[in-house]
Amino acid sequence: MFNFADLEIPLVGAPMAGGPSTPQLAAAVSNAGGLGMLAAGYLNADQLSGQVQQTRELTDQPFGVNLFCPADPNDNPVNAEALLQDYRLALAPLGKQYGLDLLNYELVLPDHFHSLLDWLLTNPVPVVTFTFGCPSAENVERLQAVGTYVGVTVTNPQDATLAAQAGANFLCVQGPDAGGHQSTFRVQDEVNQLPLSQLLPDVQSVTDLPLVAGGGIGNSEDVQSILALGVEAVQIGTLLLLSDEAGTSQAHRDALQSGIAETQLTRAFTGRPARAIVNDFVTEFDKLAPAVYPHMHYLTAPLRAKAKDAGPWEHINAWAGAGFNQAQTRPAAEIISDLFSADS
Ligand SMILES: Cc1cc2nc3c(=O)[nH]c(=O)nc-3n(C[C@H](O)[C@H](O)[C@H](O)COP(=O)(O)O)c2cc1C
Q: Most buried pick, 44, 151, 162, 291, via CB within 10 A?
């Protein structure tokens, strides 16, 4: 079974759903001596199968797959429909600018979780991680029975305890400066505001499980200070967004290089808190956004897709961690080697 001690470099390339994670990026991270990850959060089983096959063609090193746990429908507020309708009304004028009728747009909420899990049980990969919740002990055990090392992404000690009780092999501890979504277990949860350096000891006080930690890492000093806290590896997402192998859209790349100084946590795009570059969309809609998931994700998806194709980045979800202005356009292997070289 996979073991972090076998990695040449204590690095996990974060799974980044929605385009940035590619087989090329996962393989580049694994070939560089870290653990590359595929992001299956928005994929179906056929798409995952294709990505796993491509990754295997590009590397013979271990890699992992990340899944999103489905939201418990009871987690949404009882007036979720009314809240969503208000948000539709607020978004409608912008939708119209992109030729969309968001007032009458029919929401379809795909659920691929069980078919993805079944696929991974019959086609095992070395590592599987879960985000947005805790897998059942039964599912953890089924994956372990086919030789898969299982991780759960947590943002506070309470959820760390739940994941340990479910039998996880390791935890990915995510600090509040991380780019993209916070892996809160319940949609309504507020984000933990403790910096990673304080969150880690809190998690270590409730579990002895091996830990991976990430969120807001911008340079090799950040890497060293997190490793010094006794984790197996650091997880890096945003710093890989501009890498040659990432599938990051041009609009997202432009946002990251726009010289803008600010990111913030917002529910405006998906109903779940996620750290993004503060653009016009965040400024206008953050205060109006209800905590309704995954409906909000699928309501804003067509608008975000049109905005992305149009080019400018003011209306896209430009996920970014607090260290984003240190991201560089280079091959992933060079980014990684700079982060881990002794003299950097
Ligand atoms: C564009 C983007 C997409 C992300 N998608 C996922 C995902 O699909 N699954 C997941 O567990 N984490 C996801 N994350 C969060 C990362 O796993 C990780 O916590 C984060 O990137 C670490 O912080 P950093 O971006 O500051 O390095 C995403 C992050 C970014 C930037």
A: 151
**Separation of CA 15 and ligand 1 centre (Å):** 6
Q: How far is the CA of 230 from the centre of ligand 1 (A)?
A: 21
Query: In angstroms, what is the span from residue 103 Cα to ligand 1's centroid?
Result: 31
Q: Is 148 in the pocket of ligand 1 (CB under 6 A)?
A: no
Q: What percent of the chain stands above pLDDT 70? A: 99
pLDDT tens digits for 221-247?
999 999 999 999 999 999 999 999 999
SS3 129: strand
Average of per-residue pLDDT across 5-18: 98
Assess contact for 208 and 214: CB atoms under 8 A. no
- Any residues with CB less than 8 A from the CB of 246 and at least 6 apart, and which? 16, 20, 21, 22, 25, 240, 332
314-335 tens-digit pLDDT:
999 999 999 999 999 999 999 9
Alpha-carbon torsion (98, 101, 102, 105), positive or negative: negative
Domain enclosing residue 67, as ranges: 4-340
Q: What is the CATH number of the domain that holds 320?
A: 3.20.20.70
175 ligand 1 Cβ < 6 A: no
Number of domains in the chain: 1
H-run or E-run covering 158:
helix 157-165
Single-letter amino acid code for the residue at 158: Q
Which contacts qualify for 249-252: CB closer than 8 Å, 24 or more apart?
A: 249/19, 249/308, 249/316, 250/311, 251/307, 251/308, 251/310, 251/311, 251/312, 251/313, 251/316, 251/318, 252/19, 252/20, 252/308, 252/313, 252/316, 252/318, 252/319
CA distance linking residue 74 with residue 325, whole number of Å: 39
Helix, coil or strand: residue 323: coil
Q: What angle do CA 143, 5, 340 make, to 5 degrees?
A: 120
